[in-house]
């Protein structure tokens, strides 16, 4: 067992740290039109130093960093208080799918533009009648000359209010539930698309509804085989639940801020919750290091998803209990944490997965 | 011994429920003369039940207990260090030790609930030099009653949602996890209510603080479960749950945090 | 709203308090043969001052105390640190059933002997294959001349190692699950009965298995109608879950001891758990006062059962966390508390009942 | 960076598992030479996994780190005030500040786990006046490893029970409440393990205390759920769960309570 960093990683860490020290600045909320553009500009700055997608191949804008180096990047990024990633949905949800199931043409057309934030992607999984139950999707894609016509409604599409393109599953053939779905990419500014922003708890439109009325998608924007969309989407769904969506660095940084806050507002009755937040972040960090040598299975990603989402809520709740009603600097993170146990598969669904697929309890 | 609400009190709750449900908010017109703590608890449970916003605790319960003959409009009052700032109102008061003063708002603070704007106060002329000690406790108790009503409302709307919303081909209320979440919520609220009513009868610091602790935890736990079971729709400002949830989170630490009130309970034991 | 005690209740409270001050003494564990007899003797002492069953009619040994007076009695009893009640199963489980469904002959034969602890009763509900699922009972009672012959096995029968008689449900006719069950009383020393004590976590035989091999029960020991046992048993099952099984006085006394313990071993990080134990006991007390004027329904008893059982565990866990491994004076209460969420219907079953019967969620 | 057990360490765990499963308890014969903290953690996770009783932490890890050339037999050691008393053993030591002494048992104390008899010690002759500071931390870490093993064992036996036991016509493991209880248990244990392994690598007070906190909570939560899901049968001394449960409860506060270790973590941050 060895927790030390190799020389190349130490060097990379130093580069990232000094770059961030020189460049990090506060931005407006990415859920406003101007804030969104500020975040796009920040992504471009990262990309110009090849720091937007460090683990990707160089040809697409990355530097082929190891998973360990990616974790180190994330620790530095969050420790520096750097901005949220407006490109997150594309980088962490769509890109892994393209690496696994896309064509060479799709990868070279889509990934470099994603890395530079020239195209910002929104996810379009959920529909009004399908929350946790994605297999019950109803939106359709109907064959037409040279492509497909999308029709239906998507909702809870994060970033869609201001993003450029979106990815989602559509019904293309007969078949119950999981069958007959196809993974498609579409332009949010195409004819037939209406986007209606939904105000979140914080009042800003982090989500949107997307109404699709015969929206044309060319054949080259089908990912994987027609009718194989469920398998294509699920093969990388672990990414959303597990490692790549919420890196340990995020929680380590927040736990560190909580410890500082406690030192300024010490209330011994809340001490254990403060310490447990730090211990939880550290546990998640080490657990992730363990996963570097033996990658997590899909169900194992459910374990970490429940863990980090509950850790995040507990951590922010503790900050609010220390501060009271006036909680400058913590409210946005707290509101964001409340979504954790809900999205990317509710924690109730995740616990079913853990019980059935890891412990072997009957369905 | 008769630890139930009187018929008049039950009727008052019903009248207020209809009043708020009809969209009316001019509460002073209905409950101007209410001063009995149990009656006030009935009023504020309904205020919470409809997530009515504004400095009602201060205007209807605390300020009338602090000083007689206050003018028209809404009032807010700070008791530093226990309640360090004031919520938005027409007029402001400040209690420092035994001294009651007029006050004016200065800096606005970032509030957990945007509908509850918070201000720091600067002290003005002295109004009185003997402050009735129960005024603060009355504020705490009304806050507890309001939290209870907020919790009840969120349990009701979440139960309705669990019956209506289907996933995997059945109402989500049929899943045992959902049942157990809501059963726990009901237990918490059900056992917090007698503490609120008991405190209104005894009006001791011990009992009032205990009621505030129990309602803060029960109502906030209800909000968390309500959000979890509503899913993404509960996370939107368009859904009424958001008003209830943010108000509950604010009132949980308003009028003294749960930790402060646990300290007061222990001291009184 | 009024929390004051009337003059008669104040007088009764004073009598109980001074009687207890004069008589309470430590006894050995009731789960040993000699301790059991010490507890029987204690019950007789209570009975001789008409304090063993205060709420019963005078003709059976009570003094027709009101429910409020019974609560006051319990508060005084626990505050004085008086011994556990070896007659508890009879007084709180069987007696309400006899009041509701017994014959006059049964009441006058059985209740006075129960009040004096001349007969100590054990419960015999559970069977090896039926824990929470009482309707799946298999033990049978077969008609014979002048009565019934019992055959089968009961388990987790509390107090049965040393008690005199027992009550339980037996299959007397055809019918699925709830149907065809009859409520019967039997002698634990009758021919055909073998009792095998089961050591509890504390090493003492608080439970026993009862093996029944053609045990004769005369007709006058059938409670209610033949085949109607499920209804008879369930109509008073709320008693076990709710008010009468665990009176608030017990938790108030334990919470008071916990506060004292905390004052001697203050650990601010555990303060909230100490205070919450007191608040919980007080909530349960007031909730019970509320139930005096509007009696609890069966499902409402599930609410209190989950509440007090979790309160009891939390309270004792806090004491152990304050004291560490060496926890004199708290270990027995802690072990007892651990059984609370399991017996009288597990808390999982109770939560189903609350969700379905109070909140109206679908089965 | 390679945060996984080596093949040799995985093999050692397997050998010990077979050894204990065969009923053998003469552990010193197998692991006499083990001193590397990660190896020791592997050993003590298996000790916990089989609920092996006796002062093994002291005899195999702490006392060899305290002083060389101790004699045969089992050893126990107290570090007042952190570890105020000793568990039953053939020989006793006492560490007061920097002084290591022989000691003898006096009063027996009431123990949460009857198989873990506790004694107060009276000090004897001085053995050494410089005590290696990591000896105590090594005891804490082994206690954490043992708790992890106890938790794992209880999760295994409860999962097996949930598959075998039927109620209302189906295995209880099919009820969502049971699934969610066991999923939570698994999450707690799964995220506690890397803290134990990480602490064995760094051997810092911060990391060792964090591991003890997390394993104390995860293992005890496992014990509670295990008891709840076993029902009455788990409450009997005849069922093996009782040994695991009582040992877990004792080790939760042995070698310093969770509260003490949380204080140590905070101090080190």
Automatic annotation (TrEMBL), chains A, C:
Every Acyl-CoA dehydrogenase/oxidase C-terminal domain range: 227-359
SUPFAM superfamilies, per database record:
Acyl-CoA dehydrogenase C-terminal domain-like (SSF47203), Acyl-CoA dehydrogenase NM domain-like (SSF56645)
Q: Gene3D superfamilies under this entry?
A: Acyl-CoA dehydrogenase/oxidase, N-terminal domain, Butyryl-CoA Dehydrogenase, subunit A, domain 2, Butyryl-CoA Dehydrogenase, subunit A, domain 3
Which residue intervals define the domain Acyl-CoA oxidase/dehydrogenase middle in the entry? 122-215
Domain Acyl-CoA dehydrogenase/oxidase N-terminal per the UniProt entry, residue ranges: 11-117
Q: Which UniProt keywords apply?
A: FAD, Flavoprotein, Oxidoreductase
Q: Which domain of life is it from?
A: Bacteria
Cofactor annotation: FAD
Q: Which InterPro entries match?
A: Acyl-CoA_Oxase/DH_mid-dom, Acyl-CoA_Oxase/DH_mid-dom_sf, AcylCo_DH-like_C, AcylCo_DH/oxidase_C, AcylCoA_DH/ox_N, AcylCoA_DH/ox_N_sf, AcylCoA_DH/oxidase_NM_dom_sf, Mycobact_Acyl-CoA_DH
Please report which protein family the annotation says this sequence is part of. Belongs to the acyl-CoA dehydrogenase family.
- PANTHER family cross-referenced by the UniProt entry: ACYL-COA DEHYDROGENASE (PTHR43292), ACYL-COA DEHYDROGENASE FADE29 (PTHR43292:SF3)
Indicate what this protein is called per its UniProt record: Acyl-CoA dehydrogenase family protein
Q: Which organism is it from?
A: Lentzea rhizosphaerae
UniProtKB/TrEMBL annotation, chains B, D:
List residues of the Acyl-CoA dehydrogenase/oxidase C-terminal domain: 131-268
Its keywords, alphabetically, are: FAD, Flavoprotein, Oxidoreductase
Do you know which InterPro entries this protein is assigned to? AcylCo_DH-like_C (IPR036250), AcylCo_DH/oxidase_C (IPR009075)
Keyword Plastid applies:
no
Q: What is this protein called?
A: Acyl-CoA dehydrogenase family protein
Chain ranges passing through the membrane: none
List, alphabetically, the PANTHER family matched. Answer: ACYL-COA DEHYDROGENASE, ACYL-COA DEHYDROGENASE FADE28
């Amino acid at each position: 067992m060895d927790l030390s960093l190799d020389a190349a990683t130490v060097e990379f860490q130093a580069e990232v740290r000094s770059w961030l020290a020189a460049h990090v600045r506060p931005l407006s909320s990415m859920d406003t039109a101007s804030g969104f553009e500020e975040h796009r500009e920040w992504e471009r700055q990262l990309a110009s130093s090849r720091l937007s997608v460090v683990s990707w191949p160089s040809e697409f804008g990355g530097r082929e960093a190891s998973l360990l180096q990616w974790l180190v990047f994330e620790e530095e990024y969050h420790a520096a208080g750097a901005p949220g990633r407006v490109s997150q949905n594309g980088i962490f949800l769509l890109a892994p799918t393209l690496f696994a199931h896309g064509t060479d043409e799709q990868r070279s057309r889509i990934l470099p533009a994603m890395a530079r934030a020239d195209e910002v992607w929104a996810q379009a999984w959920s529909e009004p009648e399908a929350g946790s139950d994605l297999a019950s999707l109803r939106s359709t894609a109907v064959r037409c000359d040279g492509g497909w016509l999308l029709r239906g409604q998507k909702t809870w599409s994060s970033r869609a209010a201001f993003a450029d393109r979106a990815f989602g599953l559509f019904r293309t053939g007969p078949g119950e539930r999981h069958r007959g779905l196809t993974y498609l990419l579409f332009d949010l500014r195409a004819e037939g698309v209406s986007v209606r922003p939904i105000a979140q708890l914080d009042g800003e439109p982090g989500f949107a509804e997307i109404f699709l009325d015969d929206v044309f998608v060319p054949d080259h924007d089908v990912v994987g085989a027609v009718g194989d969309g469920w398998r294509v989407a699920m093969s990388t769904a672990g990414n959303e639940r597990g490692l790549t969506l919420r890196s340990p660095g995020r929680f380590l940084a927040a736990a560190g801020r909580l410890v500082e806050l406690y030192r300024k507002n010490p209330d011994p009755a809340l001490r254990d919750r403060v310490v447990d937040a730090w211990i939880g972040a550290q546990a998640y960090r080490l657990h992730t290091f363990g996963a570097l040598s033996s990658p997590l299975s899909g169900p194992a990603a459910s374990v970490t998803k429940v863990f980090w989402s509950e850790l995040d809520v507990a951590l922010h709740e503790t900050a609010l209990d220390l501060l009271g009603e006036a909680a400058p600097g913590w409210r946005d993170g707290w509101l964001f944490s409340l979504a954790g146990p809900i999205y990317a598969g509710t924690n109730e669904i995740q616990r079913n997965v853990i019980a059935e697929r890891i412990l072997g309890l009957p369905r | 011994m008769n630890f139930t609400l009187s018929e008049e009190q039950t009727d008052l709750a019903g009248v207020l429920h209809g009043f708020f449900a009809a969209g009316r908010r001019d509460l002073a017109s209905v409950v101007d003369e209410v001063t009995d703590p149990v009656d006030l608890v009935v009023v504020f449970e309904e205020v919470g039940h409809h997530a009515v916003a504004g400095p009602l605790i201060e205007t209807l319960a605390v300020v009338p207990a602090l000083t007689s003959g206050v003018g028209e409009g809404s009032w807010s009052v700070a008791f530093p260090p226990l309640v360090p700032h004031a919520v938005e109102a027409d007029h402001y008061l400040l209690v420092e030790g035994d001294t009651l003063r007029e006050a004016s708002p200065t800096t606005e603070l970032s509030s957990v609930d945007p509908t509850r704007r918070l201000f720091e106060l600067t002290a003005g002329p002295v109004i009185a030099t003997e402050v009735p000690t129960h005024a603060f406790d009355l504020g705490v108790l009304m806050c507890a009653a309001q939290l209870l009503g907020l919790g009840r409302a969120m349990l009701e709307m979440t139960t309705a949602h669990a019956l209506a919303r289907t996933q995997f081909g059945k109402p989500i209320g049929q899943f045992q996890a959902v049942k157990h979440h809501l059963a726990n919520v009901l237990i918490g609220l059900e056992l917090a209510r007698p503490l609120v009513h008991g405190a209104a009868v005894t009006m001791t610091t011990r009992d009032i603080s205990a009621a505030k602790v129990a309602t803060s935890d029960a109502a906030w736990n209800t909000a968390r479960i309500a959000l979890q079971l509503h899913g993404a729709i509960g996370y939107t400002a368009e859904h009424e749950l958001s008003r209830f949830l943010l108000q509950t989170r604010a009132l949980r630490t308003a009028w003294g945090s749960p930790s402060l009130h646990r300290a007061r309970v222990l001291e009184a034991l």
